[in-house]
């Protein structure tokens, strides 16, 4: 028997392609753990305790210590992103252009893939066990050289630079992962042409390579900034309440204390979403421009 043909003027029923089933779990995951929580935060930022619409939570972001907490978070994010870009670029360039043995590249990329996702309580514990008051490095320097980190060098892991250095553990590997493909996209013919025309290595980097890589570098800086600005678990586990940054203030508002205001916490989280969204959009835009250059 032949299958029945649809009547003239009627359309066959649309069927969802089977290829969509492969990304269905991803869509469900994004909806449940990204879109819905973000929508809940945005809605809560514009509600009072009774659920009525209000703009007071947004106005309160300019009161108390909240503005200073945003400023400290921005400074930590800028410092860790800048240092991460500088160190990560140097390491990626070294393994890409053969300044170090070629066999180091595969282990470095593997480690970068793991370390770029290593954060939260384990990372905080690792740095406390290393640079804390009774950490391995702290005790070693004190017992063998008489050097006290906080007294002699002014270093405290529970401080601005302590948190910045901790963030570098995942900022540098992320920079290596992102910038290495861009460095590999630099064509050898460009350098050979520059050398034929009499350009030195410094002139090649200053006038050819770095202008081509600039969108990638600036975009990666924006991504690292967003990555550090949105880091919550590491900051809370490492510094507790000793450093006035946005994630810690947000935690204090929503954890249910008597003086806490969950809706103000939602507004602070909404502010963090806006900042990280702008940084990510800058990264996406610059990444598209960089890909056009490399093509």
Automatic annotation (TrEMBL):
Subcellular location: Cell membrane
Gene3D superfamilies: MetI-like
UniProt keyword terms in alphabetical order: Cell membrane, Membrane, Transmembrane, Transmembrane helix, Transport
Domain ABC transmembrane type-1, residue spans: 70-283
Protein's UniProt name: ABC transporter permease
GO biological-process terms attached to the record: transmembrane transport
Species this chain originates from: Gemmobacter lanyuensis
Keyword Iron-sulfur: no
Keyword Transport in annotation: yes
CDD domains on file: TM_PBP2 (cd06261)
Any GO CC annotation of this UniProt entry: plasma membrane
Topology class, membrane: Multi-pass membrane protein
């Amino acid at each position: 028997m032949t299958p029945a043909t649809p009547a003239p003027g009627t359309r066959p029923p649309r069927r969802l392609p089977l290829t969509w089933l492969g990304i269905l779990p991803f869509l469900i995951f994004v909806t449940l753990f990204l879109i819905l929580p973000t929508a809940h935060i945005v809605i809560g930022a514009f509600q009072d305790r009774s659920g009525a619409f209000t703009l007071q939570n947004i106005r309160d972001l300019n009161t108390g210590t909240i503005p200073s907490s945003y400023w400290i978070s921005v400074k930590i994010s800028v410092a860790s992103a800048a240092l991460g870009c500088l160190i990560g670029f140097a390491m990626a360039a070294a393994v890409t252009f053969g300044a170090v043995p070629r066999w180091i590249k595969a282990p470095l990329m593997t480690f970068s893939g793991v370390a770029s996702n290593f954060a939260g309580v384990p990372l905080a514990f690792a740095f406390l066990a290393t640079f804390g008051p009774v950490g391995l490095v702290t005790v070693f320097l004190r017992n063998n050289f008489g050097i006290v980190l906080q007294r002699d060098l002014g270093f405290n892991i529970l401080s601005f630079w302590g948190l910045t250095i901790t963030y570098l553990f995942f900022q540098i590997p992320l920079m290596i992962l992102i910038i290495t493909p861009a460095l590999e996209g630099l064509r050898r013919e460009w350098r050979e042409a520059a050398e034929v025309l009499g350009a030195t290595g410094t002139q090649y980097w200053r006038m050819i390579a770095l202008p081509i890589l600039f969108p990638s570098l600036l975009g990666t800086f924006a991504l690292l900034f967003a990555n550090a600005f949105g880091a919550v678990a590491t900051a809370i586990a490492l510094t507790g309440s000793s450093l006035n940054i946005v994630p810690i203030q947000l935690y204090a508002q929503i954890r249910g204390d008597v003086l806490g205001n969950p809706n103000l916490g939602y507004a602070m989280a909404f502010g963090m979403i806006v900042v990280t969204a702008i940084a990510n959009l800058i990264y996406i835009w610059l990444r598209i421009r960089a890909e056009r250059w490399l093509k």
